[in-house]
Design a protein that fits this description.
Length: 180
């Protein structure tokens, strides 16, 4: 009988402790999510600025319903300086999320690999400046791997990842061209 009472006492304490933990976690979750969304938006704005030339002041989203398709990049006087975007493209291992910017003549202003899960030491090099910097100033008509007559040198041992970045850029730029 005594042992039964102790088990019930321990069980009640565990239930109360679990309920308190649930209440505390619930109370923390809501403000944390709001802060996380704010942080994500700040990171998006920084990525957009990183792929556009100096003089870009702000971005005007072009939407289809609730979905943002791309952004119109504007200077301080609201003159169009180009377009920028985010795009997810299938890579060698998983999805590659990239940010890209083009000027009004459809030359790349810059690219940034926002997220990827490519092979460390090989495909992961798509995020390094040595790879991404070679896109600056390249017209979309020259946007291909050098072995296919383009201006972009693939990463040795990571041709699939390199091609995935190019394919992602082409897909989004062609979409923007079709809408403008």
């Amino acid at each position: 009988m005594k042992m039964e009472k102790e088990m019930i006492s321990v069980l009640v304490r565990l239930v109360v402790l679990a309920a308190c933990a649930g209440v505390v976690l619930g109370a923390i979750y809501i403000p944390t999510q709001a802060q996380l969304e704010k942080y994500k938006e700040e990171q998006r704005q920084l990525a957009l600025k990183a792929v556009m030339p100096p003089g870009t002041d702000h971005f005007d989203p072009v939407k289809l319903g609730e979905e943002t398709l791309y952004y119109r990049a504007l200077d301080a006087d609201n003159n169009l300086v180009g377009f920028c975007f985010f795009h997810k493209q299938s890579g060698s291992q998983d999805m590659i999320t990239l940010a890209g910017g083009i000027d009004t003549d459809y030359k790349l202003a810059g690219i940034k690999i926002v997220a990827h899960k490519e092979t460390p030491g090989l495909g992961s090099k798509i995020a390094e400046l040595e790879f991404t910097d070679q896109f600056k100033g390249v017209h979309t008509s020259e946007l291909a791997l050098s072995k296919k007559g383009g201006k972009i040198d693939a990463i040795t041992g990571a041709t699939i990842s390199s091609q995935a970045v190019i394919d992602g850029l082409h897909a989004k730029i062609d979409e923007i061209k079709g809408m403008n």
